[in-house]
Amino acid sequence: MAVSVRSLEQALAPSIPALAGVPEPFRVLDVDGYQPELSAAELVEMYRWMVFGRQLDARGLQLQRQGRVGVWGPLIGQEAAQVGLGQAMRSGDWIFPSYREVITLLMQGLDLIDLFAYYRGLYWPAEPVTSGVFPIQIVIGDQSLHAVGAGIGFALQHQPRAAVGVIGDGATSQGDFLEALNFSGVFNAQTVLFVQNNQWAISMPRSRQTASQTIAQKGLAQGVTGVLVDGNDVLAVHAVSDWALQRARSGEGPTLVEALTYRIGAHTTADDPRRYQPPDEIEHWRGRDPLTRFRAYLEGRGLWDEDAEQETAQAALARIDAAVAEAESRPTPSLETYIEAAR
Amino acid sequence: MAFEFRLPDLGEGIREAQVLTWKVRPGQAISAFDALCEVESAKAAVELTTPVAGTVVETRFSEGDVAQLGDILVVIETANGAAAAEKEEWFGIVGTAPMPAAKPPGGENRVRAAPLVRKLARERGIDLERVTGSGPQGRIRVEDLDLLGRAQPPDNGVPESDRREVPKVSAAADGPSTVVPLRGLRKSIADHMLQAWHHAPQVTSMDFLDVTELVRARELLKVSAGAEAVKLTYLPFFVKAAIEALRAVPEANATLDEAQQAIVLKSEYHIGIATAVSGGLVVPVIRNADRLTLVEVAREIDRLVSAAREQRAEPKDLVGSTFTITSFGGLPGSAIFATPILNYPEVAILGLGRIDWQPRVIDGAVVPRQCIGASFTFDHRVLDGEGAGRFTAALKRFVEQPLELLMKLR
Amino acid sequence: MAEALLVEAINRALAQALGDDEHVVVMGQDVGQLGGVFRATDGLQSRFGKQRVFDTPLAESAIVGTAFGMALSGLRPITEIQFMGFMYKCLDQLIAQAGQIRARTWGQTRARLVVRTAYGGGVRTPEHHSDSLEGLLMGSPGVKVVVPSTPIDAAGLLLAAVEESDPVVVMEPIRLYRAVREPLPERLSPVPLGRARVRRGGDDVTVVAWGAVVPSALQAAEEVAAEGIEVEVIDPRTLQPLDWDTLSESVEKTGRLVVAHEAPHTGGPGGEVVAGIVERCFYALRSPPRRVAGADVVYPPQLLEDAYLPDTARITAAIRAAMED
Q: Is the dihedral of CA A136, A141, A147, A153 positive or negative?
């Protein structure tokens, strides 16, 4: 259900970087009396996705340590930033992800089996132009240009849809990101550049990634509206994403969204964060777990309880395990098939 | 069946990890994703979980030991046995791919000549070593070959004009055709067949073998073989029976050394299995087949045939047979009997045709029995009909009464 | 039929492509208002409008990267990278992104993207403007490369490139932009990719050359003809994929090969041609295949470039050497 663009803009004002002052992360979960324009069913649906994401992440780690997937990039702690965005996207919108926002991809229709087929060590089996879910991007930041290009294409062809490029804080240092931001402004691309600022780019903390106080204000220099949001507040993320996507679809212009969250886990299973990530910092952010916060909100409204939590977690595991088994039972295509398709 | 959980790659480039604590013990029943142990690598301490459900058979490595990437950490007995898929087996009539020559033929490399010149020299039967090159550094040029061709008499007394390699087929006379050059495996097989044909006077004796009991025996043993993840065909039985027959007739497990003019009796039993591969035939070898159990023979056949078909057979697997079996009965419409060509320089080969119902006379009555055609080709320089008969009689004993193999069990 | 220079042929082909398919857009630095630094896109913006022909900010990676995104959305972008020496900046987007998307999606997604770029030396440009990077591209699966040496081929290869479903780089030899002219029909036809053209027939030596080296190769052939050496000059026109049938048929006949190109010698595209011919025509070879290429050094400053570039003299020398069996 759409959030009215005009009513939100006033609430968002303190979170939109301006030449003077520092933007405040937009949040609603801690605000008394906030009424999201989402139905009870939609709210519960969002939380179910967050629980699913948490289970998926735990399973992914185990599978990697069983040698069944090559590498896993933990997403624990970032569920709200992914689900809030996913809930606001519509069919017809395109997403150009990095490699961490798998919940959003699944919400946009990526088949879980296809995801595990990819992780097993095959190329992207899903058809991106039809599904709107583009392959995971390994070259940091490149996808921002693709999202802007698609957004320009949508504008030139008068199609009311949006392209979302999801990047991390590290990617915002890449030339391609800055070029993308610039192009998006010049061509009024129907694009949302969504930064999952989890504050770590492998071992590089956000404070050393850029001297800028926020990432959202990088848009200001390029003439592109930026907005800073509490990435662990799923309702805030949803509200901002919905607002930005509507702007994009209607041709009002691109938005740079910075979702402030935290990487609780390692960069990937090949990383040892004990060497650089302060434990007390991790503990601090564990205390601001997006699932805990939203669950409290739902329970406060009588929409959730422990039974639902258990049942959802079990169902998630069952679905995940079934998808893994299915992906593992798929025959591996021959090299000839690959060469035939690739050439 | 046993599932071996090996130390996985815990992260980019990790090659070993130390076992910290075990979370399971032998005999324990476990479910998928239960914790097995905690290990420490250079990068982190991680918990390893099991991909399968079952019972822990054994844990290798004690707490504190260091395991390498790929080492088996735990053996788990899973609930379901593996069902081996039945595949259509078909082998062809014998052929071998000789090993590639280790060195190019000597001499040619001391000569300096372009590829075209070498090719023309080969075609004209000119030995480049006998040619004086007019090019820089004694390089031989096409013109030098032309001069030579005119000055020297032909080698074998055949006038040059008549010295052609193969008469060219005239398209006009024979109608349109497609020319496929003889190359690679096909050429090897052609050469080998010709060699066997030329050297050994070969005779084939043929008989039906009643395999009704063998069919029954195989049915009975298929399940236990399957439990060991082995597909049991008739071939392992024939291998074993043939070995007993070779024991009875040692001259059939031999070669004829023409240089020494002697029969070389082999004391080992390396049984070649003629195998159809894409492009022709190869003969992978089951080494010391007498020392293997029936199941081990079956497993080895499977390994060799798969490797041969996927073109990854190692050279050592393709040489050294003392006796060969060729099974050509697998395809519909295939023959019962044939006259297989020897796998030269072996002196005997057993050909197996298709298994089919035949009318047999038993105790005066005509009854249908399952029979296989056995075609035994032998080198008549070494064996006579009497020896061949003794061979096939021995073979018959162990094939028609498979239990007789128990008499030979050590 | 009116005559056109090579650069005018490109202009006409672009106009035809824009007119035939509304999804075609032309984009790059200075292509719109200015009509391109070499005037290749002259007049197109006023004719087709700013939605179809537009200038981009100065960012090669973004030009190709956003064009990739546009191609995914259904447009057919023809981008321009002003000079090939600046392509390093966009190789990631071209090769790793647009070039690999087909393989990465099992053939389901293809990037219909054309990158036109001016390349080659002999025109006294500053540093970095004369680089020939076809070797890098040929070694990168997923990207096709064409290089015309005549106006008809320039128009035809460009039209064919626009029809391709995968990224194509069109290398336009700067030295030939205004140096070659020929009559062009009203309606231009595509020249199929992967098809070489025998510019001159001969039985003695095969000379393979492309781009601005072709006229030098033809001139060298004329010179040695006086000595009784008949050279067959072949312009591959497409470097990736190469027309091996035409090339090997020629070397089977002549037994001798000379490859001439501006790119540096070591690791250069000539090596691929030689290796491929040796594999296919080994037993026909009468003498070692030879390469006439740029030296293994960074492209030299303007005053030295004539000594660096493969010219008629170096090609004739190679031809005579090849004739010494």
A: negative
C321 touching chain B per CB within 8 A: no
- 8 Å CB contact of A124 and C70: no
Provide the H-helix boundaries in C139-207.
151-163
Q: Tokens in use for C184?
A: 């062009």
For residue C325, give the nearest of B114, B118, B119 by CB distance: B114
Rounded to whole angstroms, the Cα distance separating A23 from A31 reads 17
Instruction: Show the tokens assigned to C61.
Output: 């990676």
- Is the distance from CB of A55 to CB of A317 less than 8 angstroms? yes
Helix A40-65 and helix A306-329, axial crossing angle in degrees, nearest 10? 50
Strand partners, B262: B257
What sign has the CA pseudo-torsion B177, B183, B185, B188? positive
Mutation for testing the C interface, residue in B116, B142, B146 having most C CBs under 10 Å: B116
Yes or no: say if C65 and C38 are a contact pair by the CB < 8 Å rule. Answer: no
Domains and CATH numbers, chain A: 5-342 (3.40.50.970)
Domain C197-323 of CATH type 2.60.120.10: no
Residue from the list A66, A70, A271 with its beta carbon closest to the beta carbon of B48: A66
Q: How many CB atoms lie within 10 A of CB B80?
A: 8
Give how far C83 is from chain B: nearest CA, Å: 39
Q: Does C324 sit within 8 Å of B116, measured CB to CB?
A: no
Q: What is the DSSP letter of A211?
A: S
pLDDT in tens, chain C (325 residues): 899 999 999 999 999 999 999 999 999 999 998 899 999 999 999 999 999 999 999 899 999 999 999 999 999 999 999 999 999 999 999 999 999 999 999 999 999 999 999 999 988 888 888 999 999 999 999 999 999 999 999 999 999 999 999 999 999 999 999 999 999 999 999 999 999 999 999 999 999 999 999 999 999 999 999 999 999 999 999 999 999 999 999 999 999 999 999 999 999 999 999 999 999 999 889 999 999 999 888 898 888 888 899 999 999 999 999 998 7
CB-CB neighbors (< 8 A) of B74 in chain A: none
Task: Note the CATH number of domain B2-77.
Answer: 2.40.50.100
B67, β-bridge pairs: B17
Q: Do A153 and C96 touch (CB under 8 A)?
A: no
Residues of B annotated as catalytic are 380
User: C302 CB near a chain B CB, below 8 Å?
Assistant: no
Q: For B8, name the nearest residue in chain A, comparing CA atoms only.
A: A67
ipTM > 0.85 (yes/no): no
Cα A81 to Cα A46, A200, A283, distances in angstroms: 11, 15, 19
Q: Which fold has domain C3-183?
A: Rossmann fold (3.40.50)
Domain ranges, ordered by start, for chain B: 2-77, 188-407
Mutation target among B6, B9, B72, B73 for the A interface, most CBs of A within 10 A: B9
Contacts (Cβ under 8 Å, ≥6 apart) of B372: B208, B209, B211, B234, B329, B352, B353, B354, B355, B356, B399
Residues with Cβ within 8 Å of C245's Cβ and at least 6 positions away in sequence, in order, are none
Residue C72 structure tokens = 């995914």
Domains C3-183 and C197-323 share a fold: yes
Minimal CA separation from C76 to chain A, in Å: 10
Q: Do B11 and A270 touch (CB under 8 A)?
A: yes
B176 CB-near residues (< 8 Å, 6+ apart): none
Compute the count of residue pairs across chains A and C with CB atoms less than 8 Å apart.
Answer: 129
Residue among C324, C252, C245 at smallest CA distance from C283: C252
According to DSSP, the residues that pair with A163 across neighbouring strands are: A94, A191
Contact A59 B32 (CB under 8 A): no
Q: Which listed CATH number (3.40.50.170, 3.30.450.40, 3.30.559.10, 3.90.870.10) goes with B188-407?
A: 3.30.559.10
